[in-house]
Amino acid sequence: LPNNPAEVMVAAWEWGAYLGEEAVRKGARLITSSWARFPANVMPGKAKVGGNYVNSALAKMEAVAAGADEALLLDEEGYVAEGSGENLFFVRDGVIYALEHSVNLEGITRDSVIRIAKDLGYEVQVVRATRDQLYMADEVFMTGTAAEVTPVSMIDWRPIGKGTAGPVALRLREVYLEAATGRRPEYEAWLTYVTS
Fold this sequence. Notes:
Its cofactor is pyridoxal 5'-phosphate. By secondary structure, the protein is of the alpha/beta class. It has 5 helices and 9 strands.
């Protein structure tokens, strides 16, 4: 706020797989939430603001209560928006589709994975997508600071592709983790080392 000085604190700690190791190995199970991602004229969805997480928390609680790992949120027009805390991608016939982020947080991890995918020779297109496009995809995966790259095996209890973590998602996860841990010199500029 204009008259309030900002104070910043950075915390660092060990972090396991956000949705669990099983979700990484086998793929996360998503269900479409009854909560929609709010439109940009209600809250600035592109901002990483604490108040924005209420919508995500409601969707996540609903998904977990239904036995899923994560929620899939639609926008006010019925297009796929994102997970409760992740950007979504899908793969069809060797092409990677990143979801347009008209109401979504512009994820740094999303942008990093797009760059890695292009560097690995994949074609990447940015699109608006409907649920049925995800249902028919060969693979679906999510990206985020906490989620890193997490494969999706099921949406609304429908198997995606073979119903397991897909090879494209697993390859992108491998390279992303190498980049994030300083084992990929071509992505060294992405890192800021914290010393104790």
